[in-house]
Amino acid sequence: MSITILKGDVVSAPALGQLDTTEQGYLVAEDGVIQGVFPALPERYAGAPVEDWGRALILQSLADLHLHAPQYPLMGTGMDLPLLEWLNAYAFPTEARYADPDYAREVYRLLSRDLAACGTTRVCMFSSLHTDATLILMEELEKAGITGFVGKVNMDRNSAPGLLQETTEESRRETLRWLEACQDFPHIKPILTPRFIPSCTDGLMTFLGKLAQERGLPAQSHLSENRAEMDWVRRLHPDCAQYWEAYAKYGLWNERTLMAHCVWSDQRERAAMRDSGVTMVHCPDSNLNLCSGFPQVQVMLREGVKVALGSDVAGGDRLSMFDAVAGAVRSSKARRMVDGADFLTVPEAWYLGTSAGAAYFGEAPGFAPGNALHAIVLSDDQLPQPHPLSLSERLERCVYRRQPGAIRAVWSAGRKIYEA
Amino acid sequence: MSITILKGDVVSAPALGQLDTTEQGYLVAEDGVIQGVFPALPERYAGAPVEDWGRALILQSLADLHLHAPQYPLMGTGMDLPLLEWLNAYAFPTEARYADPDYAREVYRLLSRDLAACGTTRVCMFSSLHTDATLILMEELEKAGITGFVGKVNMDRNSAPGLLQETTEESRRETLRWLEACQDFPHIKPILTPRFIPSCTDGLMTFLGKLAQERGLPAQSHLSENRAEMDWVRRLHPDCAQYWEAYAKYGLWNERTLMAHCVWSDQRERAAMRDSGVTMVHCPDSNLNLCSGFPQVQVMLREGVKVALGSDVAGGDRLSMFDAVAGAVRSSKARRMVDGADFLTVPEAWYLGTSAGAAYFGEAPGFAPGNALHAIVLSDDQLPQPHPLSLSERLERCVYRRQPGAIRAVWSAGRKIYEA
């Protein structure tokens, strides 16, 4: 049996808005499974090696539940364009390049290492429509020690014919080939990924819904990101009163479904999410960059909708989920200035970026015993001290200062995957 | 005569929303004064040494026209509190520490070096009320090669008596002592700095107004940041129809005046700014962190108000003005979602952070001949390429990615003050 013991100032998020703090505590894992956080080392571990990180913070790692891997090279470009123009001018031509496995290998290796260095150990990710590049992405993530789900994108209409679009038959065939080829990755699993309703024919959606049911596969897509998109979906599916029903009618609406954005989801759509256990993935930077809007995150949380965070690279311009956490606070403050609602506090946003994301993978909140060891060590001792800071003040400062160089080490599924 | 020739991909902002780009151009200065940007090296410089930065970008450096130096250690803490509670719980106790010259020396040395490394070479800065610490700040900025204005803060009421407040007499005496002692800094000059109207008695304001007139000193303060503050000013100065008049009636409202925030300035207040040549300093991150609001920057620009940018450390949580430029775009997008107004483009926000800030120091926009050499070299070749990027796309990406490590070298007033 292997024992991992990390000593430092331990902070975790056991519930929305709460922080558990243990100064100079011991986070203990056996065979990569957390046993607990202890103020003093339990006797049964006497003699086991302790990694002592001094006054560094030991935190949960972060979960990025929505990003587009092939758009990684685009981060921070074309942000002055509206969504649909941006897709045509930037996203589609870039994604088309992943027909080339060498380009895919180069970018996906950088991305995977960058994720580990940022302390993101759990992902749910869109690839492009290319099967081989998707397999390369899964391989590189696996090598870098990242865990989670990757989806070959399905898109057989309204995209970029001749550049980035499949026929329905190609999409079916390649999806089956991909699922066949990706069975052996231990930490990276497939997730069905219709790009969004406008880019998938009814025939393709029917196929994906069946596949989800037959093979017990999860699904991810976009929902109610902006009003033009919602109008488009209404025209394409006149039988559906709301956008979400266009996923539900094909069987892609359940407790394993991730829906990014949900900026304009009204009470009825939110109730549908809550009742079916769908997870809403809030992508604050992207929503602001693309002028999509400010979703009612606090209302959703109060109503019992599951909410996690995503970087939405490259609608979002930063890979680090520290930015997404700070961005979630800011997005809620921007919304407050419109409707006076409470804003998200830092502990609340931190919970969304850590425990709420991990919940999609079946984990309990915080460093709960039984969870896989996903943790980061973060050093803040190079920053000047205004006064002796509490652990929660230090966490807040790390979220806002979000200095990637401050991350000293990262564990994912029990393995140390990064050390500065 | 000393000649500086920088070769690289040169980008400058000659007018709002415009970029001048010269691939593999030569930026030439004689004795620290810019002669021009040339696509080929003019014959008269043949034989002069050329610093060849390859494919790196050569950009104007940035100007930060509003920040609180003593709050530097507070960056990113207490952001969940409203402004007045934050001042009492965080800002005032931290500022009080600058009674200790050793603490001042330690923090201001870090801050000054950090500014240089971020490519900020021009500042207008609040110190605390402490004369000695203010002189230490000026000395450390001077040593680090930063240029601009620093103000000993005046505050003789409604602050933190016993902790951080002067008597009117102390404030007068110390201001005179400070002005006496700071005459010999070549690049760092004094600026009168009443903290804001609520913290200065009429007697103190009268004194400061006279001083400004007698000695030709500029002034900086806060204006119309939030509504509670505006109500307070109205109660304190019932003779003034608007906040700005409480500065104007003491003679602190002219073309050398900087006013931070102006979030709620209406048409009449904006007209007063334009007519008197007052510069509005937009601090987007701070305005969002403190839920102050989104100022009408585009309206101000259209009306002819001078607008520059500030980090507002520590209401703002980042020192780099790349963040303030990206923040200005985002703030305008947030405002767009309220009133549908156009957002600021990246070239527009870049102009505000560079040329518009330099204008306060009497410089012409862009790398105009006659300007002092203030420039940064920024390398972006470690980022993956989605496609061959234009110089303006590369600038945009650098603004959004805002990686401090990308800055390779910085010139300020003709001197190289930083090299990575």
Core attributes:
homodimer, 420 residues, Urease, subunit C, domain 1, TIM Barrel, seven-stranded mixed sheet, four-stranded parallel sheet
Task: Please summarize what this structure is.
Chains A, B: It comes from Pusillibacter faecalis. The structure is a homodimer of 420-residue chains. Chain A has helices at residues 83-96, 101-118, 131-144, 168-181, 202-215, 227-236, 245-248, 267-276, 284-289, 297-303, 321-339, 346-353, 355-359, 391-401; strands at residues 3-15, 18-30, 33-38, 51-60, 62-68, 120-126, 147-151, 153-154, 188-190, 193-194, 219-223, 257-261, 279-282, 306-309, 375-378, 407-412, 415-419.
Share in β-strands of chain A: 15-25%
Multimeric state: homodimer
CATH superfamily of the largest domain in chain A: Metal-dependent hydrolases
SS field, number of helical segments of chain A: 14
Average of the residue pLDDT scores of chain A: 96
Largest interface, with Cβ-Cβ < 8 Å?
A-B, 47 and 47 residues
Judging by the overall fold, what is the CATH architecture of the largest domain in chain A?
Answer: Alpha-Beta Barrel
CATH class of the largest domain in chain A: Alpha Beta
Which structural class best describes the helix and strand composition of chain A?
Answer: alpha/beta
**How is the biggest beta sheet of chain A arranged?**
7 strands, mixed
- Number of beta-strand segments of chain A: 17
How many domains of chain A? The number is 2
Model regions low in confidence, pLDDT < 50 over at least 5 residues of chain A:
none
The side-by-side strand order for the widest beta sheet of chain A comes to 3-2-1-4-15-16-17
Roughly how many Å is the radius of gyration of chain A? Answer: 21 Å
Q: Classify the fold: give the CATH topology of the largest domain in chain A.
A: TIM Barrel
**Globular, elongated, flat, extended or rod-shaped: what is the shape of chain A?**
globular
